[in-house]
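Appendix B, example 12.
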Amino acid sequence: MGGEKRSSDRSVSSSSSPSPSCFSNFWSSALRTKTLPPQSETSGRVVSGDGLVRRLGLFDLVLLGIGASIGAGIFVVTGTVAHDAGPGVTVSFILAGASCVLNALCYAELASRFPAVVGGAYLYTYTAFNELTAFLVFAQLMLDYHIGAASIARSLASYVVAILELFPLFKDNIPSWIGHGGEEMLGALSFNVLAPILLVLLTIVLCRGVGESSVLNSVMTTAKVIFLPYLRIYCIFLRVSGSI
């Protein structure tokens, strides 16, 4: 009886304790890297049409990089940054530009070292480091993309409403919850209907394909690059005239 009880206690304790094989399997999976296929196999898949077709040219890639570096946030948060940083706003933009250059150099190095990898930062990290690090990069990117898209869409909705109010038909006739996001519920919650609509429209363009989204990105980036010098000259004029 005593022997049976001790053996049953050992079996219960062994079943309740985590198995070492679970941890070993987890770490072996977390530390594994992605194996690259042979270059000949990758080229054959692209030629046969089984792989992803590279439709972006040099001009498209340059504009894509410029658009990612000079985002819509430069029209949204510049005033806030200037208010908080004061004269140090120039240093802030220099540091941000240096960070963008380092990021671009990292992508260029990874693209040249792993030309067969298609999938962005996640697969680059998966190939160069391990799956656990790639998962952390993926989680950070998802957080960054969602928060960034929400804030930029909200600001873009405010700009769209401001443009519509230039017309007499919409002047002072657009409710705040459509685009301005009026504060509600003790200032902790605001509604902005136009922001998710803009996100849905942009998502539809992205789902149409790489070519359509590349054309839209090229148009928007070109408009930003052309508009920024005029904005800088206008701000200098306001500064000289004493308006700001």
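The longest strand covers residues 183-184. The chain is about 70% helix and 0% strand.
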